[in-house]
User: Which sequence fits this backbone?
């Protein structure tokens, strides 16, 4: 065989091998956890709206209200370092929300009920603004919680999220009741008492997104917060919500399936 023919044959073989290699690698599923994102996206705290839902936008948070249960379906907000600077005093003045077209729960629903008026967006997270603080006491942001739950592990989780904000600079929080079981109904408006509550937290650091969820029974407990840590997928199954849908699909799938990540510093 002539030398030119040999060289040509060798070149063809090299090209074929290169094409095979490229084709094989193009079919390999990427490791989503290592996907780098140049900048954080916006409105990541908001779940996807369902048809017919009425969203209410406040100074410090956004919510969807349930007339059936007379409380929020979910409340979502962003917390950053600037918002941790306390500028407003706690008001403790609970009021009906006039923005709810069907009317919200009222003080009468909770009077002598044995339940605390539990914040979904905590008042302490709204202390950066007098308006945000005032709106956090609207009943569109309130759900009936057992006292030992509200003053115990729920408060601990709220404090923990603020510590994450101080460490990472900005976090996206979505929280609300879970109605797989209604314990009872209280007051003239028949406000439902949820059996559980959820909270999910998303953050962006080192060009990656990280998220974790919590599902906690509406009762007192001595267990640590980490005992109630679950993948965000589990929260979606329990609530029917589509969380973090504004993320690219591959990143959404990755952060929602993760359970324990080194970035979350829990006791």
Assistant:
């Amino acid at each position: 065989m002539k030398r030119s023919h040999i060289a040509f044959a060798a070149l063809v073989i090299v090209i074929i091998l290169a094409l095979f290699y490229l084709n094989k690698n193009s079919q390999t599923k990427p490791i989503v956890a290592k996907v780098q994102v140049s900048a954080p996206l916006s409105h990541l705290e908001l779940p996807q709206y369902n048809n017919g839902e009425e969203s209410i936008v406040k100074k410090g948070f956004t919510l969807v209200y349930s007339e059936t249960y007379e409380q929020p379906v979910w409340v979502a907000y962003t917390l950053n370092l600037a918002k941790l600077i306390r500028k407003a005093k706690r008001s403790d003045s609970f009021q009906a929300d006039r923005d709810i077209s069907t009317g919200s729960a009222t003080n009468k629903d909770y009077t002598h009920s044995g339940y605390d008026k539990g914040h979904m967006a905590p008042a302490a997270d709204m202390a950066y603004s007098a308006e945000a603080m005032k709106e956090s006491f609207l009943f569109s942001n309130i759900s009936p919680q057992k006292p030992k739950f509200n003053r115990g592990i729920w408060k601990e989780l709220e404090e923990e999220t603020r510590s994450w904000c101080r460490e990472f600079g900005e976090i996206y929080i979505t929280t609300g009741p879970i109605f797989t079981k209604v314990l009872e109904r209280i007051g003239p408006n028949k406000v439902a008492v949820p059996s559980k509550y959820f909270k999910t937290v998303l953050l962006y650091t080192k060009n990656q997104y990280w998220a974790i969820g919590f599902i906690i029974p509406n009762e007192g407990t001595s267990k640590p917060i980490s005992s109630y840590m679950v993948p965000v997928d589990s929260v979606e199954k329990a609530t029917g919500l589509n969380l973090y849908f504004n993320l690219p699909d591959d990143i959404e799938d990755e952060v929602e399936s993760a359970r324990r990540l080194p970035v979350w510093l829990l006791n």
Q: What stands out?
A: The longest strand covers residues 170-186. The CA atoms of residues 15 and 200 lie 50 Å apart.
